[in-house]
Amino acid sequence: MLNRPEHPLEARDSFHGARTFTSNRGLELEEPLIFEIGRPETTGVDLDEPEPFESRLGVLERHSPIGLPGLSEPEAVRHYVRLSQKNYSIDAGLYPLGSCTMKHNPRLNEAMARLPGFADIHPLQPQSTVPGALELIGEVARWLMTLTGMPAIAMSPKAGAHGEACGMMAIKSAIAAKGEASTRKIVLVPESAHGTNPASATLIGFDVRPVPAGPDGRVDLQAFRALLGPEVAAIMLTNPNTCGLFESDIVEIADAMHAVGAYFYCDGANFNAIVGKARPGDLGVDAMHINLHKTFSTPHGGGGPGAGPVVLSRRLAPFAPAPFLRQEEGGLRLVEHTRDDSQSFGRMTAFHGQMGMFVRALSYMASHGADGLRQASEDAVLSANYIRASLNDLMSQPFGDAPCMHEVLFDDAWLKPTGLTTLDFAKAMIDEGYHPMTIYFPLVAHGAMLIEPTESESKASLDLFIATLRDLAQAALRGETERFIGAPIHAPRRRLDETRAARNPVLKWTKPAPK
What we know:
It comes from Methylocella tundrae. By secondary structure, the protein is α/β, with parallel strands linked by helices. Helix content is 32%, strand content 10%.
């Protein structure tokens, strides 16, 4: 057994005997909470006392001071700049999170999204004043339908999980239109799918049945076929899956689903691996959401809603939600209300989508072109396989040393003799200046370590990352446990007691006693 501290240090002032009066370390500045440095009587903005007025808040009117701390303008700027310096980002270094593509967001895209004609429009403007915006949305839709080989698309979903809900609602409406709503209640979800898939299916009112993975990390075809029947509504399959593997039996799976009258939902979060190489529509997919932030370089959230467009097959196109674009004489029209005789499942969201995300995505598509998008996929897969081949003599893979797609999966079998855990290894990466990879997911691999380098990284960047992981792995195998236990050692904060934090969360700041 390793000797682990019961309560790891939360601050680093007391280790290595290196204390400073301010707790600062050179240019790495300690920053207290704003409640600890702010003062309620201080503000960086001068506000005049209001003229006498009659409040209309009724019982909601506040009768005591709000108590929020105030800062002068220099203090406010310094506070948030210091906090930003503690945050890891793709602009600071390689972000190896698997299944959550963290690629570089080209600054050209940001410049395009800030053009006044796009940045200053309002969703409630008359359609006659925004024909350019509608045309841009239509062009993004055309690119996405072309790249996926699908005939229809819903642009309004705001994120991946929102897109999953959209696709499953279309499937549910299609089932109801056939008069099978009372019988088709089951959605099959492979163990290698994203975790939001079963949640989305359950939210829509379906019952979820898991499909086990085979020895190769892909859907177990025999187990899958045993689950088929007239009560099955759909399958939600991630491809490439979260083991970083392409589901090579996807066409056979799609044919089997269609043969029993069911639908094929594909989670498109990993589309970054196959853009320009394979079209989901050609593989038998009926619905698939596309995370614009993962595949087409729009930021994760972008300071507001993201974008998760959903492409639909001809079987599901009539059930697409409003609002949607329609080509009419004189140009595009945004159809905001459906007729009573429409098969659309209704309105998915108040407005058409997140305009800033569409601008960024089209900028990325247009600047790369079809050949550039295909090369991005090829480079993402090449980068992941380069890491796989460079580490597989030290770190174990749960499904053998087979080529992967855009992410490579390791497990903790190689760590067993050391007494260390996946968490220990991941925390030690922080000391080396790297955000850890995705750990303990997917669940089909024990102690999973899922690495996705994306196509954004140069060979020099990958070589340094690989050398760092090799050094850590060799240190672990040599028994240098002090490098891992309690890590990170050099970060502004030490390792937290995560179990204690989850079971006894402190949700309110209490002013500490004066020293």
